[in-house]
């Protein structure tokens, strides 16, 4: 019976993925057309590009339209037309990195045209995507890049405004990892400003980029962390990345729906969406100096509200999607690795413990689990062993009851598992647990009262760049509304102060224009069983 249910679930997912123009979020003609082209539905793909988007606030640029038309012509065996569209796309502002990143197999035959090959040779770059800063600790950091060809990359690092000798760290980018590589930087000093540059083939490929190491691990400190989800492709909202860069949080958590793909069976669609984001100049500037962390949700893992089931390799697309996700992010961990794929992991800043959860890979309606047994056992063990002042428990979907009325896609669909986790916190006298979530296209602060211990505060934000907005839910059974905002795109900013006699987290809602539009202070004394 379980196999039959799983088969029908997979069939439903795949059928859903084929219903492109009317059902897909964010009104993205380029992505929608690619989904049709990979199925060789060329006429439908061309028609999708020709139609105006349903939202007049999100027009596809002519550069992007020409790029997708080039892919269409390559797949149809029309290289001359493909070249015309690529040249036009670049003249209209398409970053040349988009062509170099690919689809590489489709674009490779175009180089037989000598004029095109010469034109491309005069424009091409060695460093395509990144650098992306991530996994910054008090004494180390990691830098992710994607290059045009497999190559050795070097990172030179020194303290800002100091006469120190440059430290050099190296790694290789590999074709099997989609031409990405990660350089680990070591022997750094806590809470110190540094500069780094990326070198390839002995030549500098970036200007000097500033970053700061984290405060000393395990010690009280003051620092800030931003978070949010819901980052659909909407060019008119790309300046969100500049707003974030100006706010300069120590770290930023991408909480799911980080790109909208909705096509788990075709890696080409997934890479199209990732390459498009990785090539955005404002995005590249933001991620170069901010320590980035990510988890996925339905739109960047499967399809809307997907429930893929408990098996590792059923449906068969799960592991390939996870691998593409890994190639485009640089987290401290990815679940249990190849043996137990996922995107759960933990990291620490000062005396604050961040616990990031995977709410999709093992989601199982029949078994009543969002996390699956391996991840849940890891979560409970990690919570029990944590000695940090605050423990931030980050989920891609809301914990609070009633915030998505009529839906079981949030923790409302897994209420017994939710109750088990929250009761475990109280039964084991674990103080300072704060809930974090995304999914709903707004920013909120809510409280979840509990009979067996302190009320949990949940901070939520998931409208980084999305056009679509969800209304505020001020009356919900089982949770209390504190503050909320949905007028413009926004993100959440958490300012931690664990040096205070009563440690605090100040939650601020910041809109795309950099305006503080709501705030509240959470105190450790309110997160303790008395």
A few lines on this structure:
Helices cover about 30% and strands about 25% of the residues. It has 15 helices and 22 strands.
List the helices and strands and how they pair.
Blueprint: H1 2-18, H2 29-37, H3 42-50, H4 62-75, H5 79-91, H6 96-101, H7 104-107, H8 114-121, E1 127-134, E2 141-147, E3 152-159, E4 167-172, E5 180-185, E6 193-200, E7 203-204, E8 209-212, E9 222-228, H9 240-247, E10 251-254, H10 267-278, H11 281-289, E11 291-294, H12 298-301, H13 318-328, E12 345-349, E13 352-356, H14 373-385, E14 390-394, H15 415-427, E15 433-437, E16 443-448, E17 456-461, E18 475-476, E19 479-485, E20 490-497, E21 504-511, E22 516-523
Parallel strand pairs: 9-10, 10-11, 13-14, 14-15, 15-17
Antiparallel strand pairs: 1-2, 2-5, 3-4, 3-6, 6-7, 6-8, 9-20, 12-13, 16-17, 16-19, 18-19, 20-21, 21-22
Helix pairs in contact: 2-3, 2-4, 3-4, 4-5, 9-11, 10-13
What does this 3D model show about the protein?
The chain has helices at residues 2-18, 29-37, 42-50, 62-75, 79-91, 96-101, 104-107, 114-121, 240-247, 267-278, 281-289, 298-301, 318-328, 373-385, 415-427, and strands spanning 127-134, 141-147, 152-159, 167-172, 180-185, 193-200, 203-204, 209-212, 222-228, 251-254, 291-294, 345-349, 352-356, 390-394, 433-437, 443-448, 456-461, 475-476, 479-485, 490-497, 504-511, 516-523. It is of the alpha+beta class. The strands form 4 sheets. Strands 12-13-14-15-17-16-19-18 form an 8-stranded mixed sheet, with helices on one face. Helix 2 packs parallel to helix 4 (62-75), helix 4 runs antiparallel to helix 5 (79-91) and helix 9 runs parallel beside helix 11 (281-289). 48% of the residues are buried.
């Amino acid at each position: 019976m379980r196999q039959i249910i799983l088969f029908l679930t997979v069939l439903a997912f795949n059928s859903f993925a084929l219903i492109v123009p009317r059902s897909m979020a964010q009104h993205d003609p380029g992505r929608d057309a690619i989904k049709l082209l990979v199925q060789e539905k060329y006429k439908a793909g061309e028609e999708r590009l020709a139609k105006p988007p349903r939202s007049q606030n999100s027009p596809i640029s002519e550069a992007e339209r020409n790029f997708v038309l080039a892919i269409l012509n390559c797949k149809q065996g029309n290289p001359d037309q493909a070249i015309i569209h690529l040249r036009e796309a670049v003249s209209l502002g398409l970053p040349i990195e988009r062509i170099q990143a690919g689809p590489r197999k489709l674009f490779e035959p175009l180089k037989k045209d000598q004029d095109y090959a010469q034109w491309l040779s005069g424009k091409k770059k060695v460093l395509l995507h990144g650098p992306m800063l991530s996994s910054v600790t008090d004494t180390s950091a990691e830098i992710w890049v994607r290059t045009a060809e497999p190559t050795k990359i070097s990172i030179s690092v020194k303290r800002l405004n100091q006469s120190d000798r440059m430290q050099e760290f190296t790694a290789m980018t590999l074709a099997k990892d989609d031409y990405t590589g990660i350089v680990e930087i070591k022997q750094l000093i806590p809470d110190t400003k540094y500069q780094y540059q990326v070198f390839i083939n002995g030549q500098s490929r970036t200007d000097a980029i500033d970053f700061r190491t984290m405060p000393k691990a395990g010690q009280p400190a003051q620092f800030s962390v931003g978070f949010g989800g819901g980052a659909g492709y909407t060019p008119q909202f790309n300046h969100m990345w500049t707003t974030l860069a100006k706010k300069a949080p120590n770290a930023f958590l991408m909480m799911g729906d980080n790109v909208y793909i909705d096509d788990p069976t075709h890696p080409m669609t997934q890479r199209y969406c990732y390459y498009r984001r990785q090539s955005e100049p404002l995005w590249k500037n933001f991620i170069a100096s901010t320590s980035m962390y990510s988890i996925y949700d339905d739109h960047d893992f499967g399809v809307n509200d997907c429930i893929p089931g408990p098996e590792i390799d059923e449906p068969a697309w799960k592991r390939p999607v996870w691998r593409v996700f890994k190639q485009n992010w640089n987290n401290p961990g990815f679940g249990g690795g190849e043996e137990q794929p996922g995107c759960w992991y933990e990291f620490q800043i000062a005396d604050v413990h961040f616990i990031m959860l995977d709410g999709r890979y093992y989601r199982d309606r029949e078994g009543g689990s969002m996390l699956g047994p391996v991840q849940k056992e890891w979560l409970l063990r990690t919570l029990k062993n944590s000695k940090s002042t605050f423990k931030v428990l980050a989920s891609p979907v809301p914990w609070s009851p009633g915030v998505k009325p009529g839906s079981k896609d949030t923790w409302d669909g897994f209420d017994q598992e939710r109750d088990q986790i929250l009761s475990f916190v109280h039964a084991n006298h674990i103080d300072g647990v704060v809930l974090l979530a995304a999914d709903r296209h707004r920013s909120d602060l809510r409280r979840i009262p509990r009979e067996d211990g302190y009320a949990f505060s949940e901070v939520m934000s998931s409208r980084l760049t999305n056009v679509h907005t969800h209304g505020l839910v001020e009356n919900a059974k089982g949770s209390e509304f504190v503050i909320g905002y949905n007028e413009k795109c926004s993100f959440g900013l958490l300012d931690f102060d664990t040096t205070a006699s009563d440690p605090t987290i100040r939650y601020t809602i910041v809109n795309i224009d950099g305006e503080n539009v709501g705030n509240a202070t959470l105190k450790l004394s309110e997160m303790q069983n008395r």
